[in-house]
Design a protein that fits this description.
39% of the residues lie in helices and 15% in strands. It is α/β, with parallel strands linked by helices. The strands form three sheets. Strands 2-1-3-5-7 form a five-stranded parallel β-sheet, sandwiched between helices. A two-stranded antiparallel ribbon has the order 4-6.
Amino acid sequence: MLAKIKQFLGMEAKPKELASKEEVEKVAEEKAKPRIGYVHLSGCTGDIMSLSENYDILAELLTNMVEIVYGQTLADVWEMPEMDLVLVEGSVCLQDEHSVKELMEAREKAGLLVAFGSCAATGCFTRYSRGGQQAQPNHESFVPVGDLVKVDCAVPGCPPSPEIIAKVVVAVINGDMDYLQPMIDLAGYTEAGGSDLQYKIVNQALCIGCGTCAMACQTRALSMTNGRPELNEDRCVKCGVCYIQCPRSWWPADRINKDLGL
């Protein structure tokens, strides 16, 4: 997966700090603009609002660093073109033939497919849908896009913050794959929630009690008790943000051993 992303970017990963603004602008000038598409499936449009309505943070990204070639609200085109990268928002309804077809076409025509937002990445609250809604009572099965197609990277959030979008873009441009590793791991993991912190972090003696998970939780399902995260399962929508934001959710052993000269 890392090789595929680096091939798309035309570069090798470099163990250095995130790029400065000047470095980002230089790379953007030297490289051809990536062709970006946007597919909106079953979601609340909060993800695309987080992308398109935060001009102060993402203006450089949207105007100078990428070329948006497809998207229901971002580009005036009907036919899906070839794309370097496609962002997919929302889970996919199995009873919606148009959505399934569009997702399959996006996978075929995009070099990289990103599950953008928690509905696309993990199913989020759509996991609890039972159908019977007034508009489309036959629409009852909503699954993350990774259940149907291969996902290269997942950016969780309900919705993703503009800050994490910007940081991911800078990390990709600068080749900082260590930063992206949790998102790459999440691409193949479509069941995520606050319980992951207990099973994979606390139970493995990795938790440092920093509280990042509780601060990142967008439904306030997590609180810190005696220095450890405590989950309110009734509030958890299984978006996966807490686990991705945890600084101990990934452990780059190769990089650590290299820095230590081992």
